[in-house]
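Structure record:
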Amino acid sequence: MAVSRRILFGAVLGAVLSAHAAGAQDYPSKPVRVVVPFPPGGGTDLYARELSQALAQRLGQPFVVENKPGASATIGTELVAKAAPDGYTILVTSNSLVTAPALNRKLRFDPVKDLAPVTLGADQPIALAVAPAVKGGSLGEVLADIKANPGKYNYVTAGVGSPQHLTTEHLRSLTGIDAVHVPLQGQGPMITELISGRSQIGFLVFSSAKPYFDNGQLRSVGIAGPKRTDVAPGQATLAEGGIKDFAVQWWLGVLAPAGTPEPIVQKLNREIVAIGSEPAFRSKLAAAGIDVIGSSSAEFAKAIKDDLALWTSIVDKNGIEAK
């Protein structure tokens, strides 16, 4: 009897595994919904649309982008977290996936438990921008000037709890600089504020700020990422400039609902990583300031957990509350 049960269990398990494998081979057999939790036009939306077009060409089914913005990107994210785990609803998002839960512990989804990482697909390099009033050319000289004038200089962000705010608080915690927070609405007003001289430092997406670096209205003293990138030519990292262990990525990633069959997750991963290796795809996104990366699903899962821990600690240490 025991042998018969083992044989039956083995047959059932084999059938389930075969069905999963067959499902991955046939996937996708209908259009795939690609949810972007931001309005059209930003870096995440651009990446999602370029990626969706490439996936449709490779896999023979439409990948249809749907913008579901609102509540710091949590509306669209929750939609995917609660969708059927069949591979036909996926999420393309930014590191708001980890900053939002760090700020709001009462969300109705868990970014680790309710979503299956597919790949960390790209990064938007960010620069520490400095207004001309700040003395010094190097990062060390700029930090020395700010430290010598506690409370005199302002740092500008896209709002309380924004990635710019959390990134600057991380910088402050590592360097001990004392500056006054000026929250605004978006990067455009931040650039205007810095050029005017009313505020003196702020983190900006490099590609958007590059014209102002080139014409001398602003200076970049380094990029925040873990390594140099062709998207920000000639820019050293802040870690290279002397801020030990400082490495922040405003990444773009692809996820599916938790429970999506692993063969489907891995098929998506293989296809997206392959697309990311194509020179034409990389070039088009580089022109928009997006550095294509591509990672394994396991690497992306680790990045999510590490970043969630980092931003949670920054929020808690500084008593930041989303508004």
About this structure: DSSP finds eleven helices and eleven strands in the chain. The mean pLDDT is 90.
